[in-house]
Specification:
7-stranded mixed β-sheet; 19% strand; globular; binds adenosine-5'-diphosphate; binds magnesium ion; ATP-binding; pattern recognition receptor activity; hydrolase
């Protein structure tokens, strides 16, 4: 692949001022020396004074300057956790919260979960002793439910604020309010060097504390022509860099787990074939679902003579700093959620990243020495096809969850909530309408008893509704399993390249009439019967780690059942009840088969069953889906066969009999023999 050098990202340091520290030297240095070497360290006193003098402080600093790992420690050392008070530091990503907490625990010489811990959905690694709490922004949001004034916290640091995730944006509004009546609460908003003026304005002109950057220049290269297959282009370019460029590690940005695993496999494959013709290349993936022992490997120093290539999602853009990166390879894509409030459709698609993102990525190459960034697109594409910045998530996602939460916090007038950027009016309206349809709000927009229960469960409103409905259909045992399995979605089945046929056969063996939700239930039930065995998983091409996670999630949900007044009961194999309970939550996500394929019932959108679905070949007339994913088409993932009459049973206020009439049905005999359920 041919690259042309087109630009340079200015550094703050001269290219030759400091030689890149060798891995060994770094490892030998004590952990405290590393702490003292970080850009934030010389500003420790000044920063603490600024925090003492101002209630709200915006902190801006280049990625890797020590904001996340150091500032909470400085506050701890300064005594902000005396009298049992806690410090919260929020992260948009689960992996970042876990990894950073582990690092800080090591720096402080304590066991993770004691003084330093993390808390992410369905996983709480904290204890009574925990005073430094790294947590996802979503978890801090849920803290408001139990402690609306955050009374046990002395400092809240909203980190990675520039990411502008939905939860971070909502936190801004809530924290600003709490800060007004808790003058002793300190609020820190930390961000990479982007958009900090916006945060300052939002927090009544709070001062901005700048940690001067320390970055070497980065040369930027573009491809001469567009690349058709960026995954292949990535693999080729990594090997090209490995063979032609001086030592230094490589960081590659891809969009998600599947892509990353594919790229890693391809790289390892080709390295194996090249054998001793090339130097050793360590291929390391990093993405959200990667087990933590594997995550930790990306931080280990590269052995002498070898080179490391880290294949990462956006997580490595600003949330995690990997030392020793000299080369960045950027295909220019990311996975982005989008939402159409007109149709209520949410989809996750691979889209070109923004210029701001591209420049953050390039910056990762200049942390230890002058670096190079190879972009797998043309200079023209950069100029003309990339947006300046990423649209905040609040403007491209559904708001059901957040609206339910705000309503539970007693915030009724959502139109006038203090948003940094308001969501589209239609999105807000649709969220209210859906919550009304689910029975969470009454016609005045007030929270109902059922809505209050739904907010108690840390899952999407439709999923909570499904769990609540399992009481009526006496099948909470099964529904809990379905809910848990859905939440580890898409990583249940294992499909190694060299055993595709075996793996696919194993998957088909789990199929049950009715659809994918029952398949998930079947997998879990059989696994439980095996005594939760890893051997069983191995033999059946099921991912043990995902199953273990599903078991954790299931246990936690089970623990919450009492709070929402649902008893533990089993349907004893009467799967119609399970399917009706699922329909009670997902009646919004329904599609019917027409002459021209599937159409969603309300919006008449054309959709398709995902080829991995157990119903792919059966094409039932009516179905519901768990989610829509837009890849080459709008695919429904996790689909369940339903009967249209159930929709009238579970959501009479939402469906009219007329719109559920089936034009084909009249030509068919009313009932041919027994249905599959009756036979089964
Ligand atoms: P910032 O939040 O300003 O981007 P961090 O506090 O995350 O910076 O990182 C500061 C430094 O701490 C990094 O440059 C890196 O050397 C080190 N570091 C952070 N996380 C880890 C980790 N999990 N393992 C090893 N080193 C880490
Ligand atoms: Mg950080």
């Amino acid at each position: 692949i041919e690259f042309v050098r087109a630009a340079q990202l200015q550094g703050d340091e001269e290219p030759s001022s400091v030689p890149p520290p060798s891995a060994q030297a770094q490892q030998k240095e004590s952990i405290q020396a590393v702490r003292r070497s970080l850009p934030v360290f010389p500003f420790r006193e000044e920063l603490l004074t600024a925090i003492a003098n101002h209630q709200v402080l915006i902190i801006e600093g280049e990625t890797g300057s020590g904001k996340t790992t150091q500032i909470p420690q400085y506050l701890f050392e300064e005594g902000y956790t005396k009298k049992g008070m806690k410090i919260a530091c929020t992260q948009p990503r689960r992996v970042a919260a876990m990894s950073v907490a582990a690092r800080v625990a090591r720096e402080m010489g304590v066991k993770l979960g004691n003084e330093v811990g993390y808390s992410i959905r369905f996983e709480d690694c904290t204890s009574e002793r925990t005073v430094l709490r790294y947590m996802t922004d979503g978890m801090l949001l849920r803290e408001f439910l139990s402690e609306p004034d955050l009374a046990s916290y002395s400092v809240v640091m909203v980190d990675e604020a520039h990411e502008r995730t939905l939860h971070t944006d909502i936190l801004f509004g809530l924290i600003k309010d709490v800060a007004r009546f808790r003058p002793e609460l300190k609020v820190l908003v930390a961000s990479a060097t982007l958009d900090t003026a916006r945060f300052s304005t939002f927090f009544d002109d709070a001062p901005v504390f700048r940690i001067p950057g320390r970055r070497f220049p980065v040369d930027i290269f573009y491809t001469k022509a567009p690349e058709a297959d960026y995954l292949e282009a990535c693999v080729v370019s990594v090997l090209q860099i490995h063979v032609t460029q001086p030592s230094g590690d490589i960081l590659v940005f891809l969009t998600g787990q599947e892509e990353i695993e594919a790229a890693c496999e391809m790289l390892q494959d080709r390295c194996r074939r090249l054998g001793s013709k090339i130097r050793e290349l360590l291929v390391l993936p990093i993405y959200a679902n990667l087990p933590s022992d594997m995550q930790a490997r990306i931080f280990q120093p590269t052995p002498p003579g070898a080179r490391k290539v880290v294949v990462a999602t956006n997580i490595a853009e600003t949330s995690l700093t990997i030392d020793g990166i000299i080369y960045v390879l950027d295909p220019g894509f990311c996975k982005q959620k989008s939402y159409n409030p007109r149709t209520g459709m949410e989809s996750l698609t691979v889209t070109p990243c923004s210029k701001a993102s591209a420049n953050q990525r390039a910056g990762r190459a200049g942390r230890v020495a002058a670096g190079k960034c190879f972009r797998l697109y043309t200079a023209w594409a950069y100029q003309h096809e990339l947006e300046e910045t990423t649209v905040p998530e609040i403007q491209r996602t559904s708001l059901g969850n957040v609206v339910l939460l705000l309503k539970s916090l007693g915030i009724h007038d959502l139109m006038h909530f203090d948003f940094l950027d308001p969501p589209p009016y239609e999105t807000l309206l649709l969220a209210l309408e859906q919550l009304y349809a689910l029975g969470a709000l009454n016609h005045l927009g007030e929270l109902t008893t059922s809505g209050r229960k739904m907010a108690e469960l840390p899952v999407d409103p439709m999923l909570s509704k499904m769990i609540l409905a399992s009481e009526k259909y006496s099948c909470s045992e099964e529904i809990l399993t379905v809910a848990a399995m859905l939440s580890v979605n898409n990583s249940i089945f294992y499909r190694p390249k060299d055993k595709v046929v075996h793996a696919d056969n194993a998957r088909v063996n789990f199929f049950l009439p009715g659809g994918d939700h029952l398949v998930l239930l079947n997998v879990y039930t059989q696994w439980a019967e095996s005594g939760y065995s890893s051997q069983w998983c191995y033999e059946n091409f099921v991912q043990f780690r995902s199953m273990r996670r599903a078991r954790d999630v299931r246990e936690q949900l089970e623990g919450l059942l009492e709070r929402v007044e649902v008893g533990l009961t089993s349907c004893q194999g009467d799967y119609i009840r399970v399917r009706k309970a699922i329909t009670s939550g997902y009646f919004y996500h329904t599609a019917r088969l027409t002459r021209s394929g599937y159409r969603t019932v309300k919006q008449q959108q054309t959709v398709f069953i995902h080829p991995n679905s157990s119903l792919f070949e059966q094409q039932p007339r009516w179905l519901l889906y768990h989610e829509l994913v837009l890849t080459t088409k709008e695919f429904m993932r996790q689909v369940l066969e339903i009967e249209s009459s159930w929709l009238l049973e579970v959501a009479p206020h939402y469906y009219k009999a007329k719109e559920l009439e089936d034009p084909h049905a009249k030509k068919m005999p009313k009932k041919v023999g027994k249905t599959r359920e009756e036979l089964g």
